[in-house]
Amino acid sequence: MKVNYSLSRKPGSIAQDLALRRALIVFVTMRLSLSLLAAIILGLHPIPRAPDERLRPYLGIAPITGGMAELLLGAWQRFDTMHYLKIVTHGYSPEGGNGVFPPLYPLSIRILGKAIGNHYLLAALSISNLAYLGMLILLYKLTEQELDEKTAWRSMWYISIFPTAFFLLAAYTEAPFLLFTIAALYCARKGKWNLAGIMALLASLTRLQGCILFFPLACEYLEQRDFRLRNLTWSGLSVFLAPVGLVSFVLFRYFRGYPPLRETYEVHWTSTTVFPWESLVRAGRTFLASQSAPADVFDLIFVCFFTFLTVVACRRLPRIYGIYMATTILFLLSRTNAIHPLLGMSRFVLSLFPAFILLAMAGHNSLFNRLIVYPSVILLIYLTGQFVMWGWVG
Predict the structure, then answer these.
(1) Beta carbons of 37 and 166 less than 8 angstroms apart
(2) First to last CA, the chain
(3) How far apart are CA 45 and CA 248, in angstroms?
(4) Mean model confidence pLDDT for the chain
(5) What is the per-residue pLDDT for 103?
(6) What's the Rg (C-alpha) of the chain?
């Protein structure tokens, strides 16, 4: 399928309304389905409510228990969510591992949570869910203008039924980060460089990997100016906003007397910085030695699959998307865990949104569509259940 490299066509109000309507259909379907699934799982298999440092690390935050509150809210009170809630209620801790989380998401939770009576988990879920809806709208608009409406419609569904897509609706940064990232690339393709830079800055204040948006944005800016020095303008400086979030967070930690980020990762997350291929080699060796946990196997499979899709993106999509995927993969693989070499990659690959556009293109074929949808839904149900039952997923 031929890709439309020009985004000069301006959709009218009908197209904009269509993006919103379709995004609402996907959002409501996934929100109701996953909430019902979580409630059924907890109803059929109640888990112990007492906090446990190893099995149920609530990190000093009181668990929500009893009635509908536990089924609808408490089911999402898991893992990294607890770190964000602890930052909101107790602030950053130089001795703890929460010092690696950038401030925008917990700050937003605190502001909204204060406004609704200190209900911080509800605030966190509300922010992530609104970001998920906004991300769907932007993904639809971007894909529709690069390709067509059918591909845009399918791409929203494919990313929403991906096996770890429940993180988009949980109190995690997946949805806010994707919202800012897609917005940055969408604005760049439209030539709105000030907005693109601001969105990239917000992305890097949400997750550290937002800093790599500098590379696809810089390439797109140069490409739009035919790679000629005389065509450059002051608007190009906007691309340098992408790493500002990371730099400001590092400076914040320094002036607060916190240890370097690398040290925090090593001490509290048993993670070290390596060359990207080292993570894959370690994961492969762990798998061949039959020492991989189920989550490790999923991590390895997804990394290999999305690496393949990155190569395809470089050939089939505009250059900005291939560069974004390549630099993101390299960034994510540059950190490895001592026990689980690709720790969290099943979740992190959600940020590679151009991959879902490629899958949507392939999904025009009914056989490929079935091969994508059926396994995705089955694994989504399984992994959501694992997450709700305090099983590590990503």
Answers:
(1) no
(2) 34
(3) 45
(4) 93
(5) 95
(6) 21
Instruction: Provide the 3-class DSSP secondary structure of residue 392.
Output: coil
Global pTM exceeds 0.85:
yes
Per-residue pLDDT of 111-135, as tens digits, reads 999 999 999 999 999 999 999 999 9
Cβ pair 58, 64 in contact under 8 A: no
pLDDT band with cut points at 50, 70 and 90 for residue 14? low
Binning the chain into helix, strand and coil, the percentages to the nearest 5 are: 70, 0, 25
Q: What is the pLDDT of residues 195-230, one digit of tens each?
A: 999 999 999 999 999 999 999 999 999 999 988 888
- Which residues, listed in sequence order, are joined to residue 272 by a DSSP beta bridge? 336
From the number of C-beta atoms within 10 Å of its C-beta (0-12, 13-18, 19+), residue 54 rates as exposed
Torsion of CA 143, 145, 148, 151, to 10 degrees: 0
DSSP H or E run through 336: strand 335-337
Strand partners, 336: 272
pLDDT single digits (tens) 246-299: 999 999 999 988 999 999 999 889 999 999 999 999 999 999 998 889 999 999
Q: Which amino acid is located at 368 in the chain?
A: F
Query: For residue 111, what are its two tokens?
Result: 């502001």
Which has the closest alpha carbon to 22: 171, 173, 155? 155
**What are phi and psi for residue 17, nearest 5 degrees?**
-65, -35
DSSP string, 61-112: PPPP-SHHHHHHTGGG--THHHHHHHHHHH---TTSGGGGS-SHHHHHHHHH
Mean pLDDT over residues 26-52, rounded? 93
Do you know the residue count of the chain?
Answer: 394
Give the CA dihedral 383, 384, 386, 387, nearest 10 degrees: 120
Contacts 24+ apart (CB under 8 A), 43-49: 43/71, 45/389, 47/389, 47/390
